[in-house]
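In the previous chapter we treated chains in isolation. Here, by contrast, the input contains two separate entities that must be folded as one system, with a combined length of 553 residues.
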Amino acid sequence: MSKKQVSSGEKQKPKQIECKNAALGYEGSAVVEGLDFSVRSGDYLCILGENGSGKSTLIKALLGLQSLMSGTIEWTGGLTPKEIGYLPQQTLVQRDFPASVREIVISGCLSKTGLRPFYNKAEKKLAADNMERLGITELSGRCYRELSGGQQQRVLLARALCATGKLLLLDEPVTGLDPKAQMDLYELIAGLNRQGITVIMVSHDVNAAVRYASHILHIGSRRQLFFGEKNAYMDSRIGRTFLAEEGGEDVG
Amino acid sequence: MIDTLAGYFEFSIIRYALIVGLLIALCSSLLGVTLVLKRFSFIGDGLSHVAFGAMSIATVLEVTLKAAKYSDNKLARAIVDVIDRSSSMAVILPITILAAVLLLKTGQNTRIKGDAAVAMISVGALAVGYMLINLFSASANVTGDVCSTLFGSTLILTLTKEEVWLCVIMAAIVIATFLVFYNKIFAVTFDENFARATGVQSGAYNLLIAVITAFIIVLAMNLVGSLLISALIIFPALSAMRVFKSFRSVIICSAVISVICAGAGMIASILFSTPVGSTIVIADIAVFAVFSLISSVLRRA
C-alpha cells in the first residue's frame, strides 16, 4: 500500500490546523456540528461525505471565509488561512476563459504582492518553478481553454502551489476527468505530499481516499462520523460499510 | 475626400470630438473583457438605461433651475449659480454609480431572481426618464432630445473645451485604475473563489468594476448615446476573445479594435453625415464578423 503509514510513528510533527467542537451553518441553522479534528504537517487528510453534508461549508471555514457558530478552528505552526493553497472546483466561467497558463499560475502569487500593482522577479521565478514542478512548463504560452481537463487541473494546482509552500486544500480535484487523468492527478498529489506538503482533499471517492490518505475525516448528515488514521477507518464499522457500499472494487 | 476631411479638421469642434471619442472607446474596451467573462454584461446594459433616466433628471433640474434663476428668492439664485457651474455630469454620475452598486448586488442574488430585478430597474429607469422629459422639458423638440440622448446623434459635436477636459480627466482616472488593479482584476475575473481564499477582497473589486463601468457609461453617453453603450463595451471584447489566447493580448487587442472602430466610425459619419453612434457600432459589428471568420478558419486549420 502507500508509503504514508509512517505518520503514526512521529506524533511530534507540528499541528497546522486544529478544529475543536466546531459547528458550521448559515443564519442560525447548523449544516454540520461537532467537528473535532487536527491536521499535522505532512498529513494527507481526506474529507469524505455525501453531497450536502457540509463539505463545502467546511472548506470555507478552513479558508477562514466562514465564521463558526461555535467551537474553534486554529491555524498554527506559522500557517495563516491566506497561505492555504486552494484548488476550487472549476466554474463555468473558466471553461472558455482566454488566459495563458503563465498568467493563471502567477495569479497564485497575488497575496504576496499586497499593494504593489505588478509581480516582481521572485514571484515570476516562483511561478516558473511551480510550472516546472508539475511538468507544464511547455504549456506556459498555451491558452487555458484549449487544454485537457487533466492539464487544466495541473495549472490550477501550480497556481495553488504559488500561494502556499505548506498546505494544499483540494475540492473534488478529479471531478470530470477520465480514469487515466484521475490516476495521474492522484499520483501527482501524492508526490507533492511526499515532498512534505500537507494535503487536505475533499472527495466522495472512498477508494482513492483509502489508497492515498493518511487520515480520514468522514462527515455524514449534520455531524462528524469518523476522524482518525486511515487504517483505523478501514477497520471501523462506518468505514467498512462505506467501503462496501461505495467501494465496489478491490482497493488492495 | 482627404481634402474634405482636412477641411473638417480645421474646426476645433471636430478635433475635440475625435479626442473624446477615441478616449471613450479606449476606456470602454478595457473593462469589456472582464464584464463579458464575469457574465456582468447585464450591468452595462442596465446601467445605460439608468443613465438615460439620470440624464432626464438632470434635464428637468436644469429647467427648474432656469426658472429659479429669474425668481426673487436670493437663496434660490445662489444655489442655482453653484449648480449651474458644475455640469449635468454632477447629477448623472452619482445616480449611475449608485445604480451600478444596486445592480451588482441584485444581479448576484439568485434567490430573488436577480436577472428579473435588473430588467425591472433598467426598464423602470427608461420609463421614468422619458416621462420626466415629456412633462418638464422646455424644449420644443422633445422627441429629438430623447432620440439624441438614446442614440447620441449630435451631442459629441457640441462639446465645450471644459467638457473635453472633464472627459480627459475621467478617462485618465479609468485607465490608471485599470492599470494599477490589472492583476487583481484578472484574478477576480478568472476565479473569485481562489482570489477570496488568498485574501483578495473580491467583493470590493466587483464593486470597483461596477463603479468604473458607471464612469465609462456616463462618459460614453456623449459619444454613442445611452442605448448603444453596451455595444461599445462588449463588441471589441467579444471580437478579441475570438482570436487571442491570453488575457493581456485580448485586452490590448480589444482596446485597439475599439479605438480603430471609433476613429473610423466618426470619420465615416462626418463624411457621409450618418449618426455617429450607430456608425461606430456598425464598424464594431463588422470587425466582430471578420474576427469570427478568422477564428473559424484558424480552428479548421
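Chain B has one domain: 2-300. Residues 2-300 of chain B form a domain with the ABC transporter involved in vitamin B12 uptake, BtuC fold (CATH 1.10.3470.10). Compare these points with the single-chain example from earlier in the chapter.
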